[in-house]
Design brief:
Helix content: 40-55%
Low-confidence stretches: none
Mean pLDDT: 83
Shape: flat
Number of strands: 2
Largest sheet: 2 strands, parallel
Structural class: mainly alpha
Radius of gyration: 24 Å
Order of helices and strands: HHEHEHHH
Strand content: 5-15%
Distance between the termini: 70 Å
Strand order of the largest sheet: 1-2
Number of helices: 6
Length: 140
C-alpha cells in the first residue's frame, strides 16, 4: 500500500471512530424559533404580554437599541467611547436591546455580563478632549 492509500485508510478509520463516539448531552434542551422578523406584523416574543416568553423589565423599556460594529480591537475601543457617552446621557439603562458583531462583541460581552462593579467604575471618569494629556490620563 502506498502513502496515499495509508492516509485514506487512516482518515476512514478516524471517521468511523468519530461516528461511534457521538456526544449525547445529559439533559435535553428545548429551543424555540420564531420566523418573520423582517415582516411588518412580527413582534418579539419577550415584548408580548400574552407570551410565555415575556420579560416585564424589557417590556417597560422604550424601543431603543444600541448596535456596536465590528472591526477588531479598534471597534471595541470606539464602541467603548460610544457606550460611555450613552451612559453619561443615561441612555444605556433605557435601551431594550444591545447587538454587536466581531470586535464590538468583545465589548458587548463584558458590558452585558459584568456585575462586579457599577457602570461608572466600569467606564471610568470622563476627561474632556481639551484636557487630555499624560498626567490627566494617569490620574483618571
Amino acid at each position: 500500500m502506498n502513502r496515499s492509500g495509508i492516509c485514506v485508510l487512516a482518515l476512514l478509520l478516524a471517521a468511523a471512530n468519530a461516528q461511534a463516539a457521538v456526544y449525547s448531552p445529559p439533559n435535553a434542551y428545548n429551543f424555540s424559533v420564531w420566523t418573520g422578523a423582517n415582516e411588518s406584523w412580527f413582534q418579539y416574543p419577550e415584548t408580548l404580554n400574552s407570551s410565555n416568553y415575556s420579560i416585564p423589565i424589557i417590556q417597560a423599556k422604550p424601543a431603543i437599541g444600541i448596535a456596536l460594529s465590528g472591526g477588531g480591537f479598534r471597534a471595541a475601543t470606539l464602541g467603548l467611547g460610544y457606550l460611555r457617552a450613552l451612559f453619561l446621557l443615561n441612555i444605556t439603562s433605557s435601551a431594550k436591546y444591545l447587538t454587536s458583531n466581531s470586535g464590538g462583541s468583545w465589548l458587548a460581552a463584558t458590558f452585558s455580563f459584568q456585575n462586579d462593579v457599577d457602570l461608572s467604575s466600569y467606564f471610568g471618569p470622563y476627561i474632556p478632549p481639551e484636557q487630555l494629556n499624560l498626567s490627566t490620563v494617569q490620574k483618571g
